[in-house]
Design goal:
By secondary structure, the protein is α+β, with helices and mostly antiparallel strands. It has a single domain, classed as Nuclear Transport Factor 2, Chain: A, CATH 3.10.450. The chain is built from four helices and five strands, in the order αααβαββββ. Strands 1-5-4-3-2 form a five-stranded mixed beta sheet. The longest helix has 23 residues. It is flat. It starts with a helix and ends with a strand.
Length: 139
């Protein structure tokens, strides 16, 4: 009986590790970004963005400016929509890296707002120099 209990606990612990360690996939980054918006964690959201810092610029100043801008815009939008109630990843398409171009991805997500409205968004991502997926703010 103790052996069965031990094996069960081990399997549950491994399942939790796998579930929590979603890795750095385009879909997991979009899920993290949605969670940040739900929680109004705009600094956490900015951590998921690909921010191209120009030479001579202070990256921290730029990050703070982006976080402030996103907070203002998101607060207004989410107040009208009564927050984000839930979200669902619909699809993920990854395009391999090419010469002088990083690996990119497109994730489609369906957002359900507190006012019962829904919206499908397309989120573009690309890998940064460290190989992590980041949301591409470019056009």
């Amino acid at each position: 009986m103790k052996k069965i209990l031990s094996v069960t606990v081990l399997v549950m612990a491994l399942a939790m590790l796998v579930a929590c360690g979603g890795g750095n996939t385009p879909s997991s980054v979009v899920e993290k970004s949605m969670k940040c918006l739900q929680d109004k964690d705009y600094e956490g959201y900015v951590d998921l963005l690909y921010i191209d810092v120009k030479e001579g610029e202070d990256p921290e100043v730029q990050r703070n400016a982006v976080a402030s801008m996103i907070a203002s815009k998101a607060d207004q939008t989410l107040a009208k929509k009564q927050g984000i109630k839930g979200y669902e990843i619909l699809s993920e398409e990854v395009t391999p890296a090419e010469e002088n171009k990083p690996e990119t991805a497109v994730v489609k997500v369906k957002i359900e707002y507190g006012d019962a409205s829904t919206k499908e968004e397309t989120v573009k991502l690309k890998k940064d120099d460290a190989g992590d997926w980041k949301i591409d703010m470019g056009k």
